[in-house]
Amino acid sequence: MSDPEPSRIKHEDTEEQTDQMKEQKLEPNEEEEKHCDFKTQRIKAKKLHNCSQCEKSFSHKRNLKRHMRIHTGEKPYTCPQCGKSFSQLDTYKQHQKTHDEVRDHMCLDCGKSFTKVTSLKLHKRIHTGEKPHKCSYCDKSFTQAGTMKIHERVHTGEKPYH
Fold it and tell me: Where is the C2H2-type domain (predicted)?
């Protein structure tokens, strides 16, 4: 006749071992799972404002409104000194500095001057012929990464503003 007690003890040991294995695997407990679900819901809830023209979504209505200018072509910020218009206030403010700042970075090849040394470095590529940004799809190269990305849309068919 066997004693039922050892079986019960063995079962308890197995549960304890299972719990230890769960801890070792770092499985989330019930409280952690609830927190993760809540966090996921919060993130999804934050993106309430969707663009009707493309698939972008925004957590704040003001960001969607600013984004819509890409599609509408609206440029509400106009430079009083040169008449150039901008869709973003930050870009307009940055542009204003070009009228106010000293252009102390001069190209030795052509005499053109710049407010930023980075702008001068980019400009120098015109004279050197350096084109470090190569298209992933063909043999074309570009002086600036942004120009290359725009070109690559020819190959991908991407039309981000339609």
Answer: 49-76, 77-104, 105-132, 133-160
